[in-house]
Each structure stands twice: as structure tokens, then as C-alpha cells.
Amino acid sequence: MQAVSNKLAERLSDAPTTVSAEYKPRADGSTMKALAWFGARDVRLVDAPIPYITEPDDIILKVTGTTICGSDLHLYHGEIIQLQQGDILGHEFMGIVDRVGPNIQNIKIGDRVVASFQIACGECSYCKQKLSSMCDRTNTSGLQNVMYGHRDAGFFGYSHFTGGFPGGQAEYVRVPKGNVNLLPIPDSVSDEKALFLSDILPTSYHAVVDTGVKQGDVVGIWGLGPIGQCAARFALMKGATRVIGIDSVPSRLLFATERSGIETIDFSEHTDVVKRLQELVPGGLDVAIDCGTFHQPKMLLHKVEKALMLETDVSEIVNEMIRSTKKMGSCGLIAAYAGYTNHFNIGALMEKGIRLIGNGQAPVHKYWHELLAMIGAGKLDPTFVVTHRVSIDEFPELYESFDKRVGGVEKVFVETKFSSPPSAGAPRLSRVADWGSELYIV
């Protein structure tokens, strides 16, 4: 798939952008540790050149915290097109400013900052509305233009389909348009609380806000990874009277019950999820949100079609949501979908008057000031979802274990040589090999 998509991309014209994904290495030839993709289930810690200022709006960060995201598993499995060997991964990171370009006025060397996972220009019509993920001017992918009719913003560490920008699972990272894509963090907010402003907090909040959760709603959430767990909390904050999470990973179901206080459905036990939801909520859900994944089909038919590349994405979750949601209710898709699906229940969508909302990649810039204020005021503590802390040296092992849900893993803080010690109440440093024997086989 990668060879075909890369060849096709070569034949298409690159879209014009205001930034380049390439960076200059430091003149002294110094290197850094970075996590790079080399093939399906083949990620390696490599020595890569440390980036230097390449364009006048650049900022170079010393990374103090990074992590692995559920959507990174799509890269790990080679399911996102236009990956190339040696691509540096990672779209959630924060750090200390190490270098600034001559155009940077609002951020200085030594500042603690968190990066948005998307790269916004700050000047196009979408950016002026704080819809940073929809920026028109930072992604060169002509292939995305053809497939979607338009293109998203460039993203860090997420293939050349999103611009080919080196990511933040590294000791240093170049941030193009650093004046708009970095948020200064006050000293009162720890790294463990600030890091997730890069993605999972704005993403889960956006899913709840954009799908329209309101006071008194009954909400169903498919997928109880970090996005699902955070979305459950935000739904309750918005006034939902009941939240029901659907998953099959025992540790995640237990986590949701004990730490988020929501109801759960184990779809390995209740294989007919729609029937179970109709028993629990006879009138139907008001809102359903897909926080799951497209790369784990349940039905044999989808497994065969996916293996034969007859579809890229699976429609099972969205079909379950449509059937479980009340007439005129809303269904939101925040889970990462990439291409085409079969057997979509379009009839039920139309006849029930379901509002099916593609939430899109979350516009981080729209929400991160609000969310930072919530953290500062003590109304939101993102560390509830952090279960482990490991060294950057363990990234390859972390990908394998995260993929298999070893040791009850939810969200991991990955430290570098620039990181501060763990803050009070945050997980201590551990080794992946010591996480325990609990294993969920997909």
C-alpha cells in the first residue's frame, strides 16, 4: 500500500504551502534520539540530525515530554498511506524553546510550551476562525486533495499524506510557524498536565462540543482509550445524565467504571451491542461518539475485505451508533478514519434523521486556551488518564505493548534527557518489560 500511494503521490502535483517540511541539520553534525518508521510493526530508535532554524518563523524545541497516541497505531500497522522509511513519528509533545527564528516575537528561548499536533499558518480563513486543523496552507499532499477534494493542515509525524513533517517522538523538534503553533505554559502547570493540550484534550472536548452533548443527554462512547475516557468526562461536565462506554479491554472497562464513574458494555460479552443498548436505553441514545478505531474489524466479512484491500476502513461502529441512536439524534466521528468503507447503513441514517457529524481533526487552537484555564483553575486534571511513564529509549517496546494493551496501559508520559522529574501524584519511571503479564490480544 505504501509503495502504491507513494508512487501515485509522485505523479500528482504538490499543493502550494507557506512552509517546508524539510529542515536543516545543525552545522556541527550533532544528532538526537528519534523514533522512526521503517515498515508495518517496525519502528526503531535512530540517531537523526538535530534540526536547526530553516525558515524565519521556526522554533526549535528541546522535547521535555512526548507520548504515543492510539492513532499512532494506524502508522504502526502501516494503515495510513504515504509513509516513507525513516519518517520520524509523533504528534503530541511539549518542550523548552531552544532556538527561535528572526520573525518570532511572542516566544523566547527558555519558555515552556506545548505544540498543537497540527501546523497552522495563522493567516488563512480557517486559521482566522481558530480552525487550525483545517488550515489551507501547510500540507503539500496532492493525493489528499484528490481523495478528499480538499486537504487538512499539515500534521507532525503523521506521514506525507499530512505533509511529511518530522514529529516529536524525539529529543528535538522543529516547529514551523512557531509563533502560532506553540502555547506558553505557566510554571504552576506541570508537564504531565500540559502535554495533553497537544491533542487528546482538545480532541475529546471537540468531539463532545461539536456533536452537541447537552444537559440531560444520554451519551454512548465507542472506545475507551484516552480519547474515550476524556470524552466521557467532558460529556458529564456538559450535563449528560448517563454515559455508556463500549469496549472489550478489561482494564479499560474497569478504568472507566472506577475512575470515570460511567456505565460500560463489554462487546466480547454482549456481542450484539445494539440490542444491549436498546435494553439499557429503550428510547435510544441522544448522542453517540466514535472514539474507537477502524483497524480492528469484528466481522469476518470486514476482515476479509480489509485484508484484500477492498476497503480501508470499517463501518461496524458507525452502523452500531446509527441503530442505537434515537430518531433525530446525533452521531459524531472523532476516531481517525482515512479512506473508504463498505456496508454502510445509509438507509437508517436517512430514515431516522440521524445527524452524522464528521468531527474532523480537532482544531487545537480553538480550545487550548479554554482548557489550559480549566487546568489552572483545578476544574480539569488530565493526569487521571496517565498510567505509565517510560524513557524515550523504550519507544519501540512501548509501541508493541501499547498495541497489545499490556499492563492496563492507557496513556504514557515519555521522558527525554530534558524532562523534569515526575510531578506529585504522577506515575514514576518504569520499564515496559516490568508492566506485568496482563495481555489483550487483538
UniProtKB/TrEMBL annotation:
Its cofactor is Zn(2+). InterPro entries: ADH-like_C, ADH-like_N, ADH_Zn_CS, GroES-like_sf, NAD(P)-bd_dom_sf. It comes from the Eukaryota. One of its GO terms (molecular function) is zinc ion binding. Residues 226-292 form the Alcohol dehydrogenase-like C-terminal domain. Pfam families: ADH_N, ADH_zinc_N. Transmembrane segments: none annotated. Residues 56-186 form the Alcohol dehydrogenase-like N-terminal domain. CDD domains: FDH_like_1 (cd08283). Keywords: Metal-binding, Oxidoreductase, Zinc. The keyword Metal-binding applies. PANTHER family: DEHYDROGENASE, PUTATIVE (AFU_ORTHOLOGUE AFUA_5G03930)-RELATED (PTHR42813:SF1), ZINC-TYPE ALCOHOL DEHYDROGENASE-LIKE (PTHR42813). Belongs to the zinc-containing alcohol dehydrogenase family. This is GroES-like protein.
